[in-house]
Amino acid sequence: PKYTPIKVTFVNKFGALQDIYFDKKSVNSYTTSSETFRRNIIGLDGSYSTSKHQTYNRNFSATESIVLNTGFIDEGMDEVITQLTLSPYIWGTIDGQVTPLSIKTKNQTRKTHLNDKLINYTVEFDYAFDLLNNIR
Q: Is 128 in contact with 100 (CB distance < 8 Å)?
């Protein structure tokens, strides 16, 4: 295949684990945030150094997300996508490693062959942990 398939496992409405494969384009992205403040760089003796940072960043945090596409699927998979978006526990097998995910897509349009011809769902997930480990 052109794209590496990603297996997403979730807890469905019956409490059982269910798998769905996203075998088309996937895109990883991340978002960072931090606090910035300006500090005094003049020493107690009045010395001044141009190599010190006057603006200082602290409290960094970063989250990573992934956008997955199902590829062309049958109209009957609509219920599976609905249960996926309502599931509290989701895991993705990415590069052979099981990773906890949380759903970021909050709304989804139900697609039919009559209206949409070929059905492809795009779902966005956040990784359920911070990219930069900030647990203290």
A: yes
